[in-house]
């Protein structure tokens, strides 16, 4: 074969690679860890291209024949929708620690303590950053990032290009999974929140029995001390429940991809 033959075969393969990178890149934009502000765009594009090469090697992907056509636009939109859905399901579960931090921080009196989260560039409670960091480390320790890549590759079997529109049942499952965030956040904050609730009840009874008692001088230091001690005691159990949150999010993503 002449050198011209090799040059002419590059364009279809490049178009196929770019078409595959749409789904992979959309998943990385929405998924936790990969969507962090600290990760440069060049790294995400390079990872999308590397995974796209693996997808092309494992699946016979046939992109649309014409680049500038309505069919191609709809196909690209469907690929982006699937990628965003895969990453968004994981991102929903990663919001549970923020809800738990709001419940605990408000009861402890440190709800005003916030800082810029390096993961998303927004201001979040300091306690929520701690929980999110622990959830991220556990997610990486459980090879969750590798399982995410595996599910993205497997999604081309369940939702091949051209038939990648999500059904109403799948979209409904994604919406209903959002309720799990609130349930998981409340369950994560339950051990510490229950002790702080008991402390508030005790301080309330003291205020009724001794009206001259300064509640701000007694209640705020007591709630802060009880909150810190209860966090130290309950953190092993909270760590175990963080593993449950990761497992549930990966299971929900697998159900979305594989049915």
Name some characteristics of this structure:
mainly alpha; 2 strands; elongated; two-stranded antiparallel sheet
Mean pLDDT: 82
Distance between the termini: 45 Å
What is the number of E strands? 2
Which overall shape is indicated by the principal axes computed on the Cα atoms? elongated
Order of helices and strands: HHHHHEEHHHH
Identify low-pLDDT runs: 1-8
Helix content: over 70%
Number of helices: 9
β-strand amount = under 5%
Integer count of domains: 1
Radius of gyration: 24 Å
Question: Explain this structure to me?
Answer:
- The protein is built from 9 helices and 2 strands.
- 27% of the residues are buried.
- Helix 2 (10-30) runs parallel beside helix 4 (70-93) and helix 5 packs antiparallel against helix 6.
- Strand 1 (114-116) and strand 2 (123-125) form a beta hairpin.
- By secondary structure, the chain is an all-alpha fold.
- The protein has one domain.
- It has a two-stranded antiparallel ribbon.
- It has helices at residues 3-8, 10-30, 41-58, 70-93, 96-108, 126-141, 144-158, 168-209, 215-258, and strands spanning 114-116, 123-125.
- It is elongated, with a radius of gyration of 24 Å.
- The two termini are 45 Å apart.
- InterPro entries: FliR, T3SS_IM_R.
- Keywords: Bacterial flagellum, Cell membrane, Cell projection, Cilium, Flagellum, Membrane, Transmembrane, Transmembrane helix.
- Role in flagellar biosynthesis.
- It is a multi-pass membrane protein.
- It is found in: Cell membrane; Bacterial flagellum basal body.
């Amino acid at each position: 074969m002449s050198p011209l033959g090799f040059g002419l075969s590059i364009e279809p393969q490049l178009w196929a690679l770019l078409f595959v990178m749409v789904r992979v890149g959309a998943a990385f934009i929405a998924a936790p860890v990969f969507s962090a502000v600290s990760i440069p765009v060049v790294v995400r594009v390079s990872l999308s291209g590397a995974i796209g090469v693996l997808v092309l090697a494992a699946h016979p992907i046939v992109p649309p024949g014409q680049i500038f056509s309505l069919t191609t636009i709809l196909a690209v939109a469907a690929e982006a929708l699937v990628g965003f859905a895969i990453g968004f399901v994981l991102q929903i579960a990663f919001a549970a620690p923020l809800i738990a931090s709001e419940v605990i921080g408000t009861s402890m009196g440190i709800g005003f303590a916030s800082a810029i989260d390096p993961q998303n560039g927004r201001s979040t409670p300091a306690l929520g950053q701690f929980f999110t960091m622990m959830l991220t480390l556990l997610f990486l320790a459980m090879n969750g990032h590798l399982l995410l890549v595996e599910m993205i590759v497997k999604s081309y079997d369940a939702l091949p290009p051209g038939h990648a529109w999500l059904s109403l049942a799948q979209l409904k499952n994604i919406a209903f999974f959002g309720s799990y965030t609130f349930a998981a956040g409340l369950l994560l904050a339950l051990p510490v929140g229950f002790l702080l609730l008991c402390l508030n009840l005790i301080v309330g009874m003291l205020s009724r029995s001794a009206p001259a008692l300064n509640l701000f001088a007694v209640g705020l230091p007591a709630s802060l001390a009880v909150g810190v001690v209860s966090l130290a005691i309950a953190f092993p159990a909270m760590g175990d429940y963080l593993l449950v949150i990761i497992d549930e999010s990966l299971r929900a993503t697998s159900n979305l991809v594989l049915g």
